[in-house]
Amino acid sequence: MREWMSDADRSPILHMGTFEAELHWRENNLAILPALPDKEAEKIVTAMDELLFCFCKPGDLLLTRYASSPAQLDYTSALGFDYVANTANLEQFVGSPLAAVTAGQLPSRARPADQHPVSVFRLLYEHGQPIENELPLSGAVLSPFAWVPYIGEISRKFGIYSNHPSLEIVRRVNTKRYSAWMKQHLDLKHPGFFVESAAELEVIGSELLRDGTFLIKDNYGVSGKGNLHIETPSMLTRILSSIRKQEEKGRNVQFVLERFQHKERDFSCQFHITEQGDMDILSVQWLANSQFAYRESLSPDIQFMDRLEQAAYFDIMMDIGRQLYRDGYFGHVCIDSMTLEDGSIEPLVEINARKSMSLIKNSIDRYLRKYNLFGNMTNYTVSHDGSFDHEQLLLELEREGLLFLPHRETGIMPLTSAALSVNHADIPPGKKRKGRLYLSAVAADEPGKHELLSRLEHLLERSGLHILN
C-alpha cells in the first residue's frame, strides 16, 4: 500500500469498516442455527468502527457510521493521534438501515437469510455525497477492516484508491469450510466435517456423539453467533428439526461439525500478506472469550511465546499464509488458535482473512510502547437511560484520577464514544437500553489493572449504568 512513501509525502489512508463482515459475505438463502436476536447488540456492533482511530497516522482519514463525540476527538488528539474524522453521522443522510431491512427494501444480494444492517460502504455509496465536504476522499488509499461489497462502488464514485483480492476469493477463504479444508491440507488434527443437508448432519453428528460432544458452526458464523455445542442426542434432534423445516422452505445447508476440544486458553496470531506474497507476522494476543464471543485481549508472556516457538507454531502460520496467497488472497489475516487442557496446541481453529480486534489491540500496544507502558483491551456492556453521555464519562474519569493521558503511567483509555449511546436516540423517559464502552486499562501489572477496572465499575454504577457483562 505505497509503503515506500514517507509519512510526509504519502497519500492519506482512509480507515473505515464494517465489523461483522461475515454477514455481508454470507450467501443468500442459507439455513441458520437457532439463536435469540438482539437488535440492540447488533446496533452497537455498527458503531465499533470508531476503534479504527488507533491505526491512524498524521493526515489520515477516519470515516465512521456514527461520528465520534467532540469530547472523544479532543481526547484522542490529546493522546497524540492526528487524523481528520467526519463530524456528522453518515446515517443522518438516510432513514434507519435497520428499518429498511425490516421493510424489505434491500436488494437480494445484500439481504441474507438472517437480515442485518446495511454496511457503512453501502451507506457511503448511496448517501455519502455530503461527506465529501468534510473529508477529502479523492486520492485517499482505503484501508478497511474487511473487504466487503460496495467497496468497488465507492472507490469509483469518490476516487478512492483500493487494491484487494476479488470478493469471491475473500468470501471463500473466510468460510469455516475453508478453515476445515486448510486443516486437512496441512495435516493438522481435528479438521472438521462439512455438511450440506440435515441428513448429513444427523449421520455425522450422531457418530461424533458416540465419542463425546461436538460443535456445529455456521459456514459464515461470527463472534459467538453461529456456533452451537451439541452435548446430547436430544439437543441434536431439536437442531435437526429446525434445520429440516428450513430445508423444506428451500434454504440451503452449510455447516461444519468439529469434535469439541477441552480448551485451556484462546489466543490468536495476526499477520499480513503483501500483494507480492511476502508475509509479516505482526502479533500474538491472548483472548478471553465468553460463549465463543470476544471479551478481552491481553499480551502473552515470554514463556508462552517460547512455547509457541518450540511447537513450530509460527511455521504453521507461514504455511497457512502461503496457501492463502496461492488461493488468491493477500491482506490482513487473524488466525484463531487455542491451547488444550492436555497441554497440546490447536494452531488453527478458524481463519479470519481481515483485520481483527486483536490487531487493534496490537496497535494500542505499539502506541503504549512509546511510553514503556502496557495495556489490555476490553469492553463493558451496560444498560442505561442515556442521561449519562460520553463527555460526562471523560469528565468523571478525569475527576477520579482514572483517565489515561501520555504523561500518566496508569489509567483508563476510552476507545469509543458512539457505542455507549447508539441505542438511545428518542428513548422514552425511564426506558433503559444497551450501550457499550470499549477501553484499554493501562497499568504496570495484573493487580494494577484489576484495581483500575474495579474503580471504573464503581464509577459506572454510581452514574446509573448497570453493567451487564
Range of helix content = 25-40%
Instruction: Give the overall pLDDT as a whole number.
Output: 90
| Total number of strands | 17
Low-confidence stretches: 1-6, 95-114
Radius of gyration: 22 Å
Shape: globular
- Broad structural category: alpha+beta
Number of helical regions: 16
Beta-strand percent range: 15-25%
Largest sheet: 9 strands, antiparallel
Q: Span between N and C termini?
A: 39 Å
What does the model show?
The protein is an alpha+beta fold and 469 residues long. It is built from 16 helices and 17 strands. Strands 9, 10, 11, 12, 13, 14, 15, 16 and 17 form a 9-stranded antiparallel beta sheet that branches. Strands 3-2-1-4 form a 4-stranded parallel beta sheet, with no helix packed on it. Helix 5 (120-127) runs parallel beside helix 6 (151-158) and helix 9 packs antiparallel against helix 10. The longest helix has 17 residues, at 446-462. The protein is globular and about 60 Å long. Residues 1-6 and 95-114 have low confidence and may be disordered.
Highlighted features:
9-stranded antiparallel sheet; alpha+beta; 469 residues; 16 helices
